[in-house]
Design a protein that fits this description.
Shape: globular
Structural class: alpha/beta
Distance between the termini: 48 Å
Number of strands: 6
Helix content: 25-40%
Order of helices and strands: EEEEHHEHHEH
Number of domains: 2
Strand content: 5-15%
CATH topology of the largest domain: Arc Repressor Mutant, subunit A
Length: 166
């Protein structure tokens, strides 16, 4: 089958959802630079996995969902996949630093590399790289733009134990 895609509207702009035979492969913003390196395949707006991903994302944006239940198909280096899988463990409404993630994957000196991997996360929102912040708690680096990072964190703010905004 290869890959297929559908688009959906969201508070962060139009998202392109991409599925493979194994699971959800990507969630991309319209201007996402990763688009050129990910095979979108054929458009299939009725694909069951893509419809389910859209439903769950809409529930998340409506503040009716805190976790996602989707098969994911991460494509990246072993290190990148380690980082992306570590991000999946960050609870809704909480944040971690890049250093926290580096320590979690057993590579405490890889803070910059963790940042690079987070920036290349092909499944943002669901693999919540928006929950990863700088060591000082500031919003830094986000493939979807800092405005979208702030929007996603604000959506989760009522559940967050501490704030990262000044």
């Amino acid at each position: 089958m290869g890959t297929c895609f559908k688009q959906m509207a969201s508070p962060t702009g139009t998202l392109t959802l991409i599925a493979s035979e194994k699971g959800l492969r990507a969630v991309l913003w319209m201007y996402d630079s990763k688009k050129s390196s990910i095979d979108c395949g054929i458009e299939d707006p009725s694909h069951p996995l893509l419809l389910e991903a859209e439903r769950q994302l809409n529930e998340y944006f409506a503040k009716k969902r805190q976790t996602f239940e989707l098969e994911l198909d991460f494509i990246g280096s072993e290190f990148q996949v380690q980082v992306w899988e570590a991000m999946l463990t960050i609870p809704f409404g909480e944040t971690r630093t890049y250093g926290d993630i580096a320590r979690q994957i057993g590579n405490p000196d890889s803070v910059r590399a963790v940042g690079g991997a987070a920036n290349k996360n092909p499944i943002p929102i669901i693999a919540p790289c928006h929950r990863v912040v700088g060591a000082n708690g500031k919003l830094v680096g986000f493939g979807g733009g800092l405005e979208n990072k702030a929007l996603l964190l604000e959506l989760e703010a009522p559940y967050r134990q501490t704030t990262i905004f000044d």
